[in-house]
Amino acid sequence: MQFDINQFVPGHSVDCVILSFDNEGLKVLVMKWKGPEMFCLPGGFIRKEEDLDKAAVRVLLERAGIDLPFLEQFSTFGRADRRDDSSLAHNIKMLKLPKATMQWFEQRFITTGFLSLVDRNKCNPKPDLMSESIGWYTIEELPNLIYDHRSIVEEAIQYIRNQINYLPIGITLLPEKFTMKELQHLYESILERKLDRGNFQRKMLKLGIFNRHEKQLEGGAHKAPYLYSFDREKYQNLLEKGIGFVS
Amino acid sequence: MQFDINQFVPGHSVDCVILSFDNEGLKVLVMKWKGPEMFCLPGGFIRKEEDLDKAAVRVLLERAGIDLPFLEQFSTFGRADRRDDSSLAHNIKMLKLPKATMQWFEQRFITTGFLSLVDRNKCNPKPDLMSESIGWYTIEELPNLIYDHRSIVEEAIQYIRNQINYLPIGITLLPEKFTMKELQHLYESILERKLDRGNFQRKMLKLGIFNRHEKQLEGGAHKAPYLYSFDREKYQNLLEKGIGFVS
Fold this sequence. Notes:
The structure is a homodimer.
Chain A: E1 8-22, E2 25-33, E3 39-40, E4 43-47, H1 52-64, E5 72-77, H2 86-94, H3 99-106, E6 110-117, E7 131-138, H4 149-162, H5 169-173, H6 180-191, H7 197-206, E8 210-213, E9 227-230, H8 232-241
Parallel strand pairs in A: 1-6
Antiparallel strand pairs in A: 1-2, 1-4, 2-3, 2-7, 5-6, 8-9
């Protein structure tokens, strides 16, 4: 591992929770290390002259090949024991890193969590040199993550749940065109509860932020659901006041 | 200044935005250093074995004499230039600190902001040994604060504004008994806009979270406003769902 510790601020890291959505539900981007059976969020360190939020953007690009202009900071994780993990310490020892690098990794780190919601179809993560693979996992199927990364994921989802009326949930996570059923599934995945279908559609459509598209003519076309897209301007205006949909 | 830098995590600090409310509006707790004309938030460092959130609680107690069980983390400030301030550097040099202590202060710090809303009548801040005074300032009358402390204050208030339906604004900031006019003034101070009186009272009272108390019998008593207090249980239950009052 080529890694010049002198370039970086000691003791502080960033970790990215990148969420996407498909028909299996909400998914989080997780990397698998080369060698030991260890899974983690895409994360890294802050250059000495670099702003914290810019570090998150760079780290995500370098580690996962995802280029986003902005990531949202949601919380900083500073438990003194957040990186205590004896089996992990053993695995890291097996990597036979230079002594100074070992000491770097062994110091206490406070980490700031950043998140982004991405459209699965526009986002092709690639593993970096340190990683064997990178992929999307549903929350139920998350592998064991190192350190406190699982609670970082959970806190990110909690944050989105709390902010559901103020974050551009639909417009970032869904493809350009979607059905009301898909939109409802998205909200249900985040809220982790079922919503009443009639009620959901009525309230959503009342917001006046959708364009409705022609049904595709197919066999049994009258049964095909309408496809919708967001009216970006109306969506953005409403978002500023809060899409006061879920209460 | 007695200060053993070896006890602390390098490069990371905590700063506390403590807000109270009185008839002049929302106020923030600010300390003035002994000697140079410098004002700052109560802040400090994290002990090597100490959790980040516990550090905030200890720092607030040590520096401001305020003992709170919990402070809410709202954001971490990590601009690389957040502590660049040549006049401040000059003032710090005048303090003639030991060289190692100087170097400690000159390193880059990332700081995590914590906030709390307190009842002015139950909270008596006292300055620590490093400070000449500590006091409450309205946002309009804030003195020049060091570093990025002013934007830390502004971001704290923005956070409260965004969370106004989910934070226990009234129950923490107001005295036990209050008038609807005081409650409205509190909301107006946070939102920085006027609210319609009739509309405010009607919506608030509809929430069913208040106890109404007998008017004090005085001269012209029929004109005296009703005093209210919060029904703590109902308030708490509603808060979990969001006091969906402001939209």
